[in-house]
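Write out the 3D structure for:
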Amino acid sequence: MSKSLRERAEDTAKEVREILGVSEDDHPTEVADAIEHAIIRALIEERDRCADMIHDHMEEDAQKAKYVSDKVRAVKSVLITNLSSMR
């Protein structure tokens, strides 16, 4: 079973605390939140980049390009919802 973004963020936060020699009780939620937000921001930026690339490289078939680009961009609402729910 794949891990959720939150689980990945918590695992990464634990690794960072171990590297820095910081206690696990030292702001664990805030560190995991910051990592999770960074992951989501990166995913949104990559999604935009992919949608733009699809649109740019499929101009000869504009209808197909628009369809694929719209599908890729639809992911943004899910990512934004996840990011907003963490605030």
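Helices lie at 5-20, 28-57, 62-85.
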